[in-house]
Every structure is written in structure tokens, then in C-alpha cells.
Amino acid sequence: MKIVAICGAGIGTSEILRVNAVRALERLGIDAEVTATDAASVGASAADAQVILTSSELVSAIGRTNADVVVIENYFDLDEITAKLELAVG
Question: For position 10, what pLDDT does the model report?
């Protein structure tokens, strides 16, 4: 399974989300490749992704995708990330 975390610049915020997504997946016992990228590169980075994690502001930047787009409100809230990933991949 491939999961992509995106933010505007692809540097800080998406990396925070990536790290917390890995922690959430460990809680759930799910093995997945989790990468971080910027909104401009999401088309190439997420072409084969099953899940895209992002903020509500960037959903429109994703464009057409077969991946489940999961909006995360608080990138530091491990409980929120875990619950939303469980719904998306469960």
C-alpha cells in the first residue's frame, strides 16, 4: 500500500504528517509506504497511491485520482490520523 502526504511546499508540514501517519499505521498494524511531497508534484508522486493525506485547503490541488483523499484537520493529532486511516484502509 502506498500513502502520500502532501502540503503546499512539500517540506515541513507534509513530513510531519508523514511521520505521524507512520505512527498511526504502526498502531493499526498496517504496513505501508508513506511518502511526503508538495501539492505541485502530487500528480506524479501519488499516481499509484491508495491514500492521499492532506489539509482541506489543498484538496482542489490534487486533481483526478483513484486514491482515497483523506483530509486531516490537525497534523499533530495522532488519534485523528489513526481513526481516519483506519476508515480509509480498513
Answer: 61
